[in-house]
Amino acid sequence: MHDIKQIRQNPEKYLSALQRRGENHSLEKILELEKSRREIVARLDDMRANRNAVSKEIGTIRKGGGDASSIEQEMRSLGAEIQSNESNVREIEASVEEMLLNIPNVPSDSTPDGKDATSNVIVRSWGKPLKHEFVPFDHLDLAERLDILDFKRGGKIAGSGFPVWKGAGARLERSLINLFLDTQTGVHGYREMMTPFVASRESMRATGQIPRLEDDMYHSEKEDLFLIPTSEVTLVNLHRDEILKESDLPIRYTAYSPCFRREAGTYGKDTRGFLRVHQFNKVEMVRFEKPEDSYSALEEIVGHAEAILRLMELPYRVLRLCAGDMGFNAAACYDLEVWSSAIEKWLEVSSCSNCEDFQARRASIKFRRNSTGKSEFVHTLNGSGLATSRVLVAILENYQTAEGSLIIPEVLRQYMGGKTIITSPGDLS
What we know:
The protein is of the alpha+beta class.
């Protein structure tokens, strides 16, 4: 969320930022409301000062034995007017806050201009995209052949977009989660957390998922709880309404969670199987940083996601997202994409963002400077480290054999009981 004072002082900056994002927001209404609020607050200050002065006068009259009833009646009327104006201020503040909650983050100066993904910038790549010497199965056909995934029965249970992992598929999925967590904790120094898989409306609002994306969430109306779209939500909210010590920073958390998103879309040529689902598994990285350290931390997070792809020897590339293609919370964002050899496309497996103080303002997360004793907002960062679904797509399509078997990446074999290849239904069942 943005500071209304900063918008008031420099509206052109925010209009320019929104235009870079391709947003059609107008700041006229919010500035009018803020002007009205300040005018009412000024009048309230005058009325309260007048009431205090007259209250002293009434006390003096009473001490002298005089009649202050007419002045007291005026004060009762003034009190009612003060209450009415206070109510107006609260209503205006609520309207201003609601508008602020719907304004996306300001892109950083380092974020490229552009309206959509065609303007994203390829920063670097690793590995050579694989070209099979045979006609490969796509990931869903191979998974069905090996009997390790079942979307039909998942659809029977919960509807389309909810997979069932079977036998070696379930073991492989669990292996990916273990590899991701072990690498982020044991190698990269994140502290593992296990947080709830549901979050309150306040938590969702604090991290920017609502009100903007509320229609994309699974919601339990009775408890007013949401199934989380990512553990970024719960990890950031661990420190909501807190003032941290400077010595506490940086804070690095990682967590596994299933992720739930209603906006997964319909199925077609480019959305088969795991390419787009309503439920998937992910290991998330979240960091709380001092403002001056957040952009070096962003580069580290990207590197921590890349390291796992290299461990699995999956060809990938890193993209710097343009302003028009970034998520609502991001000031700067990188995507990591792996190569799908069956459909010959790059698939996103990680998105790493610096939100600067955007989420911290919404969540009221600050830290206190040792040198000045003053508190200021932290910067929050997040990154997928990694999401399993499209990684599994890449493994199925890059590690398959001409015979229709699946070679298990070497780094995963320790989690697969030493198994090196899945050759037929029932393997590791």
